[in-house]
Amino acid sequence: xxxxxxxxxxxxxxxxxxxxIGLIVILVASLVAFxxxxxxxxxxxxxxxxxxxxxEDLLIQTKEDxxxxxxxxxxxxxxxxxxxxENTAEVEDIHVDASDDANKAQEEFVxxxxxQEETVVEEEIFTVVENEPExxxxxxxxxxxxxxxxKYPQVAKENNITGKVYVTFVVEKDGSIxxxxxxxxxxxxxxxxxxxxxxxxxxxxxxxxxxKAVRVQFNLPVSFNLQ
Length: 227
Known about the structure:
Elements lengths: L14 H51 L32 H11 L16 E2 L12 H11 L4 H5 L4 E9 L5 E8 L5 H10 L7 E3 L2 E13 L3
């Protein structure tokens, strides 16, 4: 027994309908594609046209803003009239005898003699000699002179400063005192007072070496005691 197909399952009857549907779909797709392409081309042409118009306007404005260069001014030429005058004055010849002037200059020049400075050689100062320098009247007279001449400084009194100030000086060949200075001070103005008293001393008996007066360095202690 032969099997029969159902009329619903038979696709041959619907073949024409499917073909029409496919053609309709293809036609619609074609129309849509053509419309989109023409729109894009039209829009691109409009944008390009606007850009070209703006560029032309910009070029025109730039050309109009540039001013022409000013004309160059030619410098004025000043013409000065020069009159040439002939020199008719006679010039006398001046004769100069160079030899006479040279002789006069030599006669008038007198060399100036510059005196030479004499070199002063300082004599030696002795510290130890055969005969020591001596105060007039000896050492007792020296201590008496110091005791009577020294005035105790007020600052030393107020601070109860006592002791010995050592002074050194040079006894010159004529017995005078030179270059006194303090070797050791106790403060309170005692050093200044000792220098004052030494400077006021009378001339000493100079020291001698081999029977000849010489310069001698002498050290003297000056006592300051409160009583």
